[in-house]
Amino acid sequence: GAGVSQSPSNKVTEKGKDVELRCDPISGHTALYWYRQSLGQGLEFLIYFQGNSAPDKSGLPSDRFSAERTGGSVSTLTIQRTQQEDSAVYLCASSWTSGSTGELFFGEGSRLTVL
Amino acid sequence: SQKIEQNSEALNIQEGKTATLTCNYTNYSPAYLQWYRQDPGRGPVFLLLIRENEKEKRKERLKVTFDTTLKQSLFHITASQPADSATYLCAPLDSNYQLIWGAGTKLIIKP
Question: What is the mean pLDDT of residues A84-108?
Answer without folding.
Answer: 88
